[in-house]
Amino acid sequence: MERFFEVVVGGDSLSVKKPNPAPLQHCVARLGASAALYIGDSEVDYETAQRAQIPFIFFTGGYRKASAAFFQNAHHIDQFSAVPALADSLLKKP
C-alpha cells in the first residue's frame, strides 16, 4: 500500500496510539504540511483531532458508538464528494 501514500502510520509505528495525537502529528510533520485536517468516523478519531488541534471532518456513515451529536465541533459529511469544497474552506486556500 505504501506506493499509494506518501506517509503510512499504523498501530505499531510509534510507541503511542490514537487518541494520542502523536501519530497524526507525525504524519503532518512527515508531509511537511503547514495545515491539515483529519477525516474520521469514530469517537477515537474525533478525540485524536481535538488533542492535535486539527480541524475534524466527521463521516456519518462510518463506525461509531455515540450519536452524531457527540461530534459537536466537527464538520459532518455523509458523502466523500463533499470533502474538497469543505477542505478548501477549512484550510482557507486562496
Summarize the structure.
This protein has helices spanning 22-31, 43-52, 83-91; strands at residues 38-40, 56-59, 75-77.
Please name the CATH topology: Rossmann fold
The fourth-level CATH homologous superfamily is HAD superfamily/HAD-like
Number of strands: 3
Low-confidence stretches: none
- Could you say which overall geometry the principal axes of the C-alpha atoms support? globular
For the termini, the CA-CA separation is 32 Å
SSE topology string: HEHEEH
Q: Give the DSSP E fraction (strand runs of 2 or more residues).
A: 5-15%
Number of spatially distinct domains: 1
Mean pLDDT: 93
Strand order of the largest sheet: 1-2-3
CATH class: Alpha Beta
Question: Can you put this structure into words, describing what you see?
Answer:
The protein is built from three helices and three strands. The chain is an alpha/beta fold. It has a single domain, classed as 3-Layer(aba) Sandwich (Rossmann fold), CATH 3.40.50.1000. It starts with 21 loop residues before the first helix and ends with a helix.
Secondary structure: elements and pairs:
Layout: H1 22-31, E1 38-40, H2 43-52, E2 56-59, E3 75-77, H3 83-91
Parallel strand pairs: 1-2, 2-3
Keywords:
alpha/beta; 31% helix; 3 strands
